[in-house]
Amino acid sequence: MGTKASGAFEVKSWNEETYEEIDGGAKLTRVSVTQSFSGDFAGEGTVEYLMIHRSDGNANFVGLQRLIGRIGDRSGSVVLETNGTFDGSTARSTWSVVPGSGTGDLRGLRGKGGFIAELGPNGSFTLDYDFE
Question: What is the pLDDT of residues 62-116, one digit of tens each?
Fold first, then answer.
């Protein structure tokens, strides 16, 4: 990938609903999240996660996240596919740009990266990217 973007994000809302309890204390949930981003990518994001919370306090999640904003002098939106873990205190995720999801000046964006966030509303992200 050609360019590395990094920055910070803040969770603005977190709405989680359990849709299935599992024997032994685990559960499956759906989560809707809104975020604001600053740094090399500046804008807003919305994400839908599916999570499994295990009885040991850890969790795994997958999701699709739409980012709307600006990378450098280009603006538009893009969708990221996310896959992550939560160990009871820190969430870590890898993500990749969904091919063909870019709009506006972000058409043709491709890349991979991820985020890390301690328990709370703030985290940091990276995205290694280029354009087709």
Answer: 999 999 999 989 999 999 999 999 999 999 999 999 999 999 999 999 999 999 9
Nearest of 118, 36, 35, 105 to residue 74 by alpha carbon: 105
Q: Are 97 and 112 in contact (CB under 8 A)?
A: yes
User: Do the Cβ atoms of 50 and 32 come closer than 8 Å?
Assistant: no
**Distance (Å, rounded) from C-alpha 45 to C-alpha 12?**
10
The SS3 assignment for 105 reads: helix
Tokens at 64, concatenated? 């699709």
Task: Give the other-Cβ count within 10 Å of 31's Cβ.
Answer: 15
List the domains of the chain with CATH numbers. Answer: 3-131 (2.40.350.10)
**What Cα–Cα distance (Å) separates residue 88 from each residue in 18, 38, 80?**
18, 26, 24
CB 37 within 8 A of CB 11: no
